[in-house]
C-alpha cells in the first residue's frame, strides 16, 4: 500500500523529515513535570534543539529569496549575512551556556 503513494517517494523524504523534526521540536514535553516528579524541567525542553537542524535550510531559503528579488547581488554580501547569522547563533548558544552554568552554580 505504501509503495503506491507518491508521498514516500525519495524526493519527498526531505519533506517527511522536516515534518517529523518540526513535530518533535514543538511538542511540550515539559508538561510531563505536572504529572511526574521531575527535578530539572529544562531537560524536557531540549527537544526544541531539534529545530536547529533546519536552520541551514531556512538560511538558504532566505538567501535565495533575497537573490531573486535583487536585494543580494554580490556573493560577498551573501557570505557576510551567513557569517552574521552564524555568529549570532554562536553568541546565543554561548549565552545559554553561561546562563546554565550560573544557574547550576547558584543551586549548589
Question: What's the quick description here?
Answer:
The protein is built from 3 helices and no strands. The protein has helices at 13-26, 55-69, 75-107.
Index terms:
108 residues, mainly alpha, 0% strand, flat, disordered N terminus
Report on this structure.
It contains three helices and no strands. The longest helix is centred in the last third of the chain and has 33 residues. The radius of gyration is 20 Å and the shape is flat.
In total, how many beta strands?
Answer: 0
| Separation of the first and last Cα atoms | 57 Å
Main pleated sheet: none
Mean pLDDT: 76
CA-based gyration radius: 20 Å
Low-pLDDT parts are: 1-10
Shape: flat
Order of helices and strands: HHH
Q: What is the strand content?
A: under 5%
Structural class: mainly alpha
- Helix content estimate: 55-70%
Distinct helical segment count:
3
Write the layout of secondary structure elements.
Blueprint: H1 13-26, H2 55-69, H3 75-107
